[in-house]
Amino acid sequence: MSKKVLMIISNGDKNVISAAMTFAAVSFENKLYSDLKVFFFGPSEKVISEDKDLQASLSKLIKDGITPVACVNVGNAFNITPKLNALGFNMIPVGKAIADLVNQDYVTMVF
């Protein structure tokens, strides 16, 4: 039975963010999980709001069918919510959303 996975990208290192997004894309394309959700949280939100290379990778994830989620509270704290919205993020308070997914038996992977 295939697992449901919640990938949380919180690291502020561009290389870690890039690797995580590549892993998400490959996992999604190859249907390695029954469901894959990708959440950005904390420093990763600020980095992706500023980095064109990561934004290009994000655009590919979106084209492939992944809807990225980011924390609206972090976005507001960094004054980047409008930019993240424009990049295609679904901006929500992620705390409850993460708890709900964990309670629905999603396996968490944190980068």
Terminal Cα span: 24 Å
**What would you call the shape?**
globular
Q: Provide the helix percentage.
A: 40-55%
What is the string of SSEs from the N terminus onward?
EHEHHEHHEHE
> Could you describe the largest sheet, including whether it forms a barrel?
5 strands, parallel
Average pLDDT, all residues: 96
User: What is the tally of helical segments?
Assistant: 6
Strand content: 15-25%
Radius of gyration: 13 Å
**Low-pLDDT stretches:** none
Output the keywords:
6 helices; five-stranded parallel sheet; alpha/beta; globular; 111 residues
How would you portray this structure in words?
With 111 residues, the protein is of the alpha/beta class. The chain has helices at 14-29, 43-50, 52-64, 72-77, 81-87, 94-103, and strands at 4-9, 35-40, 69-71, 90-92, 107-110. The chain has a 5-stranded parallel sheet with strand order 4-3-2-1-5, sandwiched between helices. The relative contact order is 0.24. The model has no long low-confidence stretch (mean pLDDT 96).
Describe the structure concisely for a colleague:
By secondary structure, this protein is an alpha/beta fold. 54% of the residues lie in helices and 20% in strands. It has 6 helices and 5 strands; from the N terminus they run βαβααβααβαβ.
Strand and helix map with partners:
Elements: E1 4-9, H1 14-29, E2 35-40, H2 43-50, H3 52-64, E3 69-71, H4 72-77, H5 81-87, E4 90-92, H6 94-103, E5 107-110
Parallel strand pairs: 1-2, 1-5, 2-3, 3-4
Helix pairs in contact: 1-3
